[in-house]
Amino acid sequence: MASMRATAEKDGGAEGGLARLARPLRESLSRRLLVLTVLFVMLAEVLIFVPSIANFRLTWLEQRLAAAQIASLALEARPDNMVSPALREELLKNAQVYAVALHRDEARRLVLSEEMPPTVDTSFDLRGAMAMTLIMDAFETLLAGDGRVVLVTGNPRFGAGESIEIVFDETPLRYAMLDYGRNIFLLSLVISIITAGLVFTALHFVLVRPMRRITGNMVAFRQDPEDARRVMAPSGRADEIGIAERELALMQKEIRATLSQKAHLAALGGAVSKINHDLRNILASAQLMSDRIGAIDDPMVQHLAPRLFASIDRAIDLCANTLKFGRAEEAPPRLARLALAGLIDEVAEAAWPESEDIRWHNRVAPDLEIDADPDHLFRILLNLTRNAAQALAESGKGGEIRIDAHRAGDHVHIDIVDTGPGLPEKARAHLFEPFSGGVRAGGSGLGLAIVAELVRAHGGHIELVDSGPAGTHFRFCMPDTGGALAACEEPGEPPSAGR
Fold first, then answer.
1. Which letter does DSSP use for residue 460 in this model?
2. pTM for this entry
3. Helices 29-72/131-143 angle, 10° precision
4. Helix (H) or strand (E) holding 211
5. For 94-137, what is each residue's pLDDT tens digit?
6. How far apart are the first and last CA of the chain?
7. Which residue from 161, 263, 299, 396 could staple onto 156, CB 3.0 to 4.6 Å apart?
8. What is the C-alpha to C-alpha distance for residues 11 and 5, in angstroms, rounded to an integer?
9. Maximum CA extent, the chain
10. Cα separation of 442 and 422, whole Å?
11. CA 50/CA 41 separation, integer angstroms
């Protein structure tokens, strides 16, 4: 157990050491860039070194073949192609070979060799050798031990024969290749360090420093986005870094403006909520007093009382809608299967008192059912029909309100149509925006904003189909299965059968 624990601690220590060594690279882009630059330059040098060492070996062997060819030409001066032992030894020593054979033609061969040449360990043929073969032979030479005797066959220079063969000790070639490789490695290392330093310096000033400036600004801005001094100051560069700086500065300014606006709206909303709460209580008292005034039997009072009641009612509705809209969000809908026609009858009773000038037409089939939250759907229909009824009442001409509903694919279309005077152009431009899309004088526009929010909560869609002197037509689509509405398809003419 002790040995296992010691091994684990050793492995953990090794891993911890590697982690400590790697941490500076993970935490610093500049250090990582420097290391990668050195590695890539060294890799490039290695790719250069491999063919270079093979070419160095080929050149060395060709020079040795040329020296052996010159030595073999001494045999041409003798009629019997023989030289004295002393001259033979000197020629072989100068050529640094054990033996040389020059093939002039099929019938003639000049041979210069020691009396007892050593045994050949391996052979290489340089005639028509491919680049990969030369590279593999070069690494075989580097990895071979000292004292290996090789036979090399090549082409003689200047067309002096068919082929030439030499036998020699490969050790001098191996040491020459090692010296050459060492020099190449040192030179590559120096070049890598210089190149890496230059590349690192250039990238540091061109990329790393600007990136540090951008990231530092982002961190500082996140800590206190309301501080205007922490907005990015673009450097004026025209490249991608400059674009990033300008876009970041623009985004930070927009975020600051949004935060400032939200803070102002939050403060204003808090004040408005308090004012509306108190104002609603005051108006409730005023409504009680107006009821008493309405009981006075005076023609002037009886003439002004309805207008007073209407003004107080509108003020109370405005306060109620403002407080209702100021809540964080509506409760999620609780879907239930319900008969739409019965719900519309309840809405008709609550939307407006009985009036001979306003006629209701519930044209929804009794068997049409829909998946929706009953309370939410009631509020949607109540807001839309109340707006229609108020528009008809204020026009002084009366009219009718018609409600149709029919299925279209996997959703249900519900149409609310009135014969009122239509919506003003200003209301149509900001129809579903709070405090902007009021459909009548003195209205806040909160009713339609709440309607749009409730419809979206059901996964549906609402739109103004038409509005003009002939009337106003609203349509909202609700998914019939409780899912999201992919597309609100036009179903054609609604069914004419109704109640």
1. -
2. 0.43
3. 90
4. helix 209-223
5. 888 888 888 876 655 667 777 777 888 888 998 888 888 888 98
6. 89
7. 161
8. 10
9. 162
10. 16
11. 15
pLDDT in tens, 326-355: 554 566 888 888 999 989 888 887 766 556
Tell me the C-alpha distance between 159 and 111, whole Å. 18
Q: Pairing between strand 149-154 and 122-125?
A: parallel
Cα torsion 257, 258, 259, 263: sign: positive
Query: Which CATH superfamily is 335-479 part of?
Result: Histidine kinase-like ATPase, C-terminal domain (3.30.565.10)
Q: How far apart are CA 316 and CA 318, in angstroms?
A: 5
The residues pairing with 110 across neighbouring beta strands, listed in sequence order, are 102
Q: Partners of 124 in the beta sheet?
A: 152
Q: How many CA atoms lie within 13 A of 276 on its CB side?
A: 19
**pLDDT one-digit tens code per residue, 423-467:** 887 777 778 776 554 555 445 566 788 888 889 888 888 999 998
Return the ∠ at Cα 90 (arms to 88 and 96), rounded to 5°: 100
Quote the CA–CA distance of 293 and 184 in Å, as a whole number.
110
DSSP β-ladder status, 108-113 and 336-339:
unpaired
Where are the strands (E) in 17-78, listed by range? none
